[in-house]
Amino acid sequence: MAQTPPATWQEHWFEHNQLLNRKFYDNDVAVYYDNDVSSSVTWPYTYMGDVWRYVKNVYGSFGNDPHLFAVYHTGKYSGGHPSTYFDASHDNRNVIDVGAGPWTSGGTGGDLDISTHEVAHIVEGASKGVKGSPAFPIWGDSKWAEIFIYDVYLGLGKSSEATRWYNQMQSSTDNFPVAGTHWFRDWFYPIYHNYGGTQVLNRFFTLLAQYFPKSGNSYSRDMNWGEFIHFWSGAAGLSLKPLATAAFGWTATFETQFNQARNDFPFAYGTGVVNVYKHCNYGGYVTTLGVGNYTLSQLQDMGVLNDDISSVKVNSGYQLQLFQNDNFTGTSVTLTADASCLVPNNFNDLASSLKVTTASLTTARTTTEQPIDNRLAIYPNPVVDELRFNSIQSISGSVIRIIDVMGKEVISGRLTSNRIDVSKLAVGVYTLVILNKGNTISQRFVKSH
Known about the structure:
The protein is an alpha+beta fold. It folds into 4 domains: 8-129, Zincin-like (2-Layer Sandwich); 150-264, no CATH class; 274-361, Crystallins (Gamma-B Crystallin, domain 1, Sandwich); 375-447, Sandwich (Immunoglobulin-like). It is built from 12 helices and 22 strands. It has helices spanning 43-59, 109-126, 136-139, 143-155, 159-170, 183-194, 198-211, 225-236, 241-248, 252-264, 296-301, 361-367; strands spanning 8-10, 19-25, 29-33, 68-72, 79-83, 94-99, 214-215, 218-219, 274-279, 283-289, 292-294, 311-314, 318-325, 329-335, 353-358, 376-379, 386-391, 399-404, 409-414, 419-421, 428-436, 439-447. The strands form 6 sheets. Strands 1-2-3-4-6-5 form a 6-stranded mixed sheet. Helix 2 (109-126) packs across helix 4. It starts with 7 loop residues before the first strand and ends with a strand.
């Protein structure tokens, strides 16, 4: 049973020296005010409890004490700060401490924003029982908090606050890693919107706790940019290199770090029908592929280097054709089963392009788990000029829509064939939607180059 929070609490951190009075508590939150906070301010009692319950439901527990300690000041200590149960400085409690008030909005706008912002730092600094935030030097004080705030508002049913925040973030820019970067608009929101919402946020911290270096119960170092993109790709279930390129640019340093991260932390992005590995015996980085034709540039967008494949796994009912040169030319080898090393095939570290095919769509559907709509197969993916697709049902005459990461329809029309020209689309991630006799079939794809 949770210990009852103390009736008073003497601050003893930074310049804070107020005697705090407990104004409200339940099983999840304890709200404290200094003497200058108006007694008419009651919205934190409900709101902060709701936020903390939501956080624990999504990200798990944060220490043995189930309470969030929410501290409010008026007329002093402008801004706010967090602390986690790892920190003796705040008596090993999960704390948000905010000022300068006066908090009389009734629980709207900026009062909610700053309170929720500080909870975001607790999540990044103590999720999954590990202390620290290796990504903090990359996303800074506010970038993670921005998508966290949006998710919390949606999760708590505060649609008007979510809309306000979304609109506010559309014009928000930063100068890191380059001037004019739209973190929310071009990076976090597309990931959130397209690859799992709340779950994709949680998966990032799950992967971090599972793979990133630790010393005891603390992370032992910070992430670099390549690692950052690799871990978010793992959370999203596909390579986010194209999205990162569009959002941040792509430097030679990013490329080197990204490739090294995939070797250091060899988890796959999502699921597919073929896995290709850097080393023999399924070692090194792994890239998961669906049915499609992959040129060298497309493979590189997914993190596969030239002449770098040494072992493969091929699902039953599929085949993998490796080509020595780009654009499906030169010597080739066809594999219909796993190969722990391509040396006996005389094809170790020789592949520059490849094709993944299936004998029949029906076989494919019964031999592999599809992460998204299995009624529609699209290829190649990533695509350069022409997207082709097969469906298990007749879709001739159906309405087709292609939607970008911002939810904007960029192509629409009716199907007259099993292919569509996407050459004029910008590089990025899109969703293909087919509306057929009252049914909706969808698949996402990556447009490259």
